[in-house]
């Protein structure tokens, strides 16, 4: 081609590319126009533009001239390092096959895109100034045509222009995100100084941390000044099907941790550890920050990505800044609540359980909140449990279940508690300190009155009210132990098959020990793994292998188990055989019975799936 014509063609190509870049917000439209500009109307040239997808480590066809491959835009993928284009991407070097591409060792044919019509090919990488791969431009010449000497260099110039344009777009987007994040942090700080409730601050902060880091999952687990711990979970929009599927599989486990935290079965420290372990096998990158003021640890915040992108340098700094705002909000609320509610029962119980009160201060504070030091007391801890979505389960025509904050009114109204009963409310529980008169009949009367309150709430709203009841305590020094006893009875009772009722530590029996074991972070043994496999099979296949196994291990007899389950003995044997195959152990072997039964009971304690005959206290003690 004459020099003048060559210069004219180069000028037309570069002008066309310059006009194409930034001409549309859709990158596919832009890159298709770039491909057309490079072809410059020549019928013997076809141009493909690929962008690199780091998630799948391949190149995606996003722009092409009018050709058989044009119908594959968005779907054709070239493996990184494979074929001419893949090799160019991996090596960051241009590569030319001047004749008969099929004979070149790096050439890899892709059926269905008309490659048989081409007699030459070259590809150049699109690389940013930071040596990050953006994509590739691949140019084809039809059979009987060859590339001019200037063409590879020209397309390398085009690739540099495309890379620079992408870099400008990236920097502009980063600047916009930084400005948005800064506005978000300022708004968060205003919420803190404006004394917005901690729950609102934590919720807003968690979403800000997720969006600022472009994380797939953000979790904040913090202590709450109102007397309970809380967990906030935020997930981002998942355009990638793989990430969406992972999020869907993780959500039940994360919500279960949240439920256990709200029931006070675990502390925020344990919850934070469980969240990390739940995401350990799925997260590809994580950045964490402590919610801390000085030496006071108040919680943790973590952001996770489920693809290989990783977090940029600003990510951890942003999360730390946001976590500091959350810590400040909590600390400020604690300080101000301490001034405003110093003589409130909830604050007194909080200080009592934390061990902050000396003997003289204990007496002074107890007198201030109205506790009669001359009398004994029984502690009742009540919580709505078992129905996380009460409104959707409420029978037609009935009012929704009250929030925990209204439970004190409900108990005072329906349980006939003494007038000098003191109440304290947290976001998830109500504590009643009930004056007690010596005598077993008095305690039993209190219990029956609370059972009646549970029954009334159940019949009117459909909600399950769980009440834990302590033994009588005769001194102020024993109040903390009584509160812990009632709270633990309530926690274990809430995991029963029928959580609506009144429970003492005597009622929950060995379930208490199993609950403590189930909360321990241990490496699963082969029996725990076997039970988990059978449980998952039941969930997917809607079978009852685990219940069958529980009945058999309870009576240690196939005949008795078949009668209890009202099934044929052959059916029982088939179920047990299938359970053996799934679990990888012989459930008929007496040597396996005790450890397998123990693992099964721990699983039931962890999931709250007690068999009906073991579900709770006697009928006269629960609704």
TrEMBL record:
- Domain GAF, chain residue ranges per copy: 26-176, 197-340
A Pfam family it matches: GGDEF_2
Q: Gene3D superfamilies attached here?
A: 3.30.450.40, PucR C-terminal helix-turn-helix domain
Q: Which family does it belong to?
A: Belongs to the CdaR family.
UniProt protein name: GAF domain-containing protein
> What are the leading ranks of the lineage?
Bacteria, Bacillati, Actinomycetota, Actinomycetes, Propionibacteriales
């Amino acid at each position: 081609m004459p020099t003048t014509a060559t210069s004219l063609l180069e000028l037309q190509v570069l002008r066309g590319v310059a006009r194409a870049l930034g001409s549309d917000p859709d990158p596919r439209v832009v890159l298709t126009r770039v491909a057309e500009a490079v072809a410059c109307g020549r019928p013997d040239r076809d141009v493909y533009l690929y962008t690199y997808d780091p998630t799948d480590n391949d190149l995606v066809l996003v722009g092409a001239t009018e050709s058989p491959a044009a119908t594959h835009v968005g779907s054709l993928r070239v493996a990184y390092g494979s074929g001419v284009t893949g090799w160019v991407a991996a090596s960051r070097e241009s590569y030319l096959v001047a004749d008969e591409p099929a004979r070149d060792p790096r050439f890899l044919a892709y059926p269905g895109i008309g490659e048989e019509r081409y007699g030459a090919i070259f590809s150049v990488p699109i690389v940013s100034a930071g040596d990050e791969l953006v994509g590739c431009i691949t140019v084809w010449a039809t059979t009987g045509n060859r590339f001019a000497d200037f063409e590879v260099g020209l397309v390398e110039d085009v690739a540099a222009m495309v890379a620079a344009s992408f870099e400008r777009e990236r920097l502009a987007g980063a600047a916009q995100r930084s400005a948005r994040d800064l506005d978000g942090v300022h708004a968060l700080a205003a919420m803190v100084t404006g004394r917005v409730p901690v729950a609102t601050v934590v919720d807003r902060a968690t979403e800000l941390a997720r969006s600022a880091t472009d994380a797939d999952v953000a979790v904040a687990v913090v202590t709450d000044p109102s007397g309970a711990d809380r967990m906030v979970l935020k997930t981002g929009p998942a355009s990638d099907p793989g990430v969406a599927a992972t999020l869907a599989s993780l959500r039940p486990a994360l919500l279960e941790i949240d439920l256990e935290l709200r029931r006070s079965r675990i502390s925020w420290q344990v919850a934070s550890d469980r969240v990390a372990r739940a995401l350990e096998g799925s997260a590809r990158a994580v950045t964490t920050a402590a919610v801390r003021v000085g030496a006071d640890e108040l919680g943790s915040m973590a952001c996770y990505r489920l693809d290989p992108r990783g977090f940029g340098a600003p990510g951890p700094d942003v999360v730390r800044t946001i976590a500091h705002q959350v810590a400040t909000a909590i600390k400020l609320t604690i300080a101000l609540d301490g001034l405003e509610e110093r003589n409130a029962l909830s604050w007194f119980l909080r200080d009592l359980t934390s061990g902050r009160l000396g003997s003289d201060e204990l007496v002074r504070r107890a007198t201030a909140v109205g506790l009669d030091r001359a009398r004994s007391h029984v502690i009742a801890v009540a919580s709505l449990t078992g129905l996380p979505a009460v409104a959707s389960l409420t029978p037609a025509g009935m009012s929704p279940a009250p929030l925990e904050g209204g439970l004190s009114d409900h108990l005072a109204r329906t349980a006939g508690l003494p007038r000098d009963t003191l109440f304290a409310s947290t976001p998830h529980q109500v504590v009643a300190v009930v004056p007690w008169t010596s005598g077993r009949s008095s305690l039993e009367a209190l219990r029956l009155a609370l059972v009646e309150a549970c029954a009334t709430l159940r019949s009117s709203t459909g909600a399950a009210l769980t009440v834990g009841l302590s033994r009588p305590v005769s001194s102020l020094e024993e109040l903390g132990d009584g509160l812990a006893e009632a709270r633990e009875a309530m926690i274990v009772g809430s995991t029963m098959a029928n959580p609506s009722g009144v429970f003492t530590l005597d009622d929950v029996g060995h379930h208490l020990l199993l609950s403590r074991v189930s909360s321990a972070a241990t490496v699963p043994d082969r029996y725990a793994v076997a039970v988990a496999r059978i449980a998952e099979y039941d969930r997917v296949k809607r079978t009852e292998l685990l219940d069958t196994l529980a009945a058999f291990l309870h009576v240690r007899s196939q005949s008795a188990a078949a009668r209890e389950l009202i099934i044929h003995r052959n059916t029982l044997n088939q179920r047990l055989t299938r359970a053996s195959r799934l679990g990888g152990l012989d459930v008929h072997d007496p040597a396996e019975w005790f450890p397998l039964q123990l693992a099964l009971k721990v699983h039931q304690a962890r999931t709250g799936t007690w068999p009906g005959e073991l579900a709770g206290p006697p009928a006269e003690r629960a609704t």
